[in-house]
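Marked as duplicate of an earlier ticket. Keeping the data here for the record.
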Amino acid sequence: MMKIFVNQKIKCLFVSIALCLLAFLSAAMLLISFDVKYAAFYVLLSGLAISVAILILCYRYFSEQNKIMEDAVSQITGYLSGDKDARIECDDEGQLYRLFHEVNTLVSILNAHAENETNSKAFLKNTISDISHQLKTPLAALNIYNGILQEEAAEFPTIKEFLTLSEQELDRIEALVQSLLKITKLDAGTICLEKSFTSVSQLLESVRNQFLFRAQQENKTITLSEGDDVPFLCDRSWMTEAVGNIVKNALDHMQAGDFVSIAWRTFPSMLQIIIKDNGSGIHPEDLPHIFKRFYRSRFSKDTQGIGLGLPLAKAIIEAHSGTIEVDSQPGAGTTFTLTFLIPTKL
């Protein structure tokens, strides 16, 4: 719209100049034909003077228009750079200033939306924090009561069995609360990742050790490949959570005698972490949905999962500017590939 407006002004000015020159040239030719002495010279001189005056006016006009446009571009650039108070002057009349006024209105709307989003995130953070603190106390009390009852019911096998199931459900509720708290904080952007360079081999070794006892109890194997160690820029605590959730998911879908391997490989500008298992695999119907919260497959035999491990892992990986890919076939196992850029080699 702005370009069309300026082009119309240019056309009008040059048409005016052409008409003026044509008028003076016509008058000059008529005077010459009637043999009026020096008349043609004066007409041509006047026409030239008027043409120069028009050109000067055009130059000043376009210089002013260019300054207005440069100021507008400067204000827009300032806003894009973070200056929320940047505005374009639009006190004059005309289509151009009407456009500037609409741009200012759009900026005000965007600022209002940004402020509302900030307030919503703060409200969400505070609400989640309050709920988590309110749930911790009754959960701790229930665990204590459950432990006391287990001691008193030592001679009653049936009661002890139900108390053991009760303890498992309490553990699931606690895990659910913690996972919801973590994933919602990531969504709200209220978690500041404390990134530092850490050894990728040490990070993955700590994940393996975290699940080693469970794997031994269930007659499953966790292997860690040996490779060239590289410094990995990440928040170690959160990245351990992400990789650990993927390993846990693999163990949940494996039988006794199966294995899960953790490996990594480096390229000139990126690092890949590969978690591979030979478990039950993922049905093709489920692959597009495995990162959705609380998603439960109708083909899965896992009855303990709550459907937050993989979504939380994906949120953490993306918070590190990484990507996660999955390749799986039913009955043939699953491979998760985590890819991260290496800043020091860019």
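See parent ticket for discussion. Confidence is low (pLDDT under 50) at residues 1-7.
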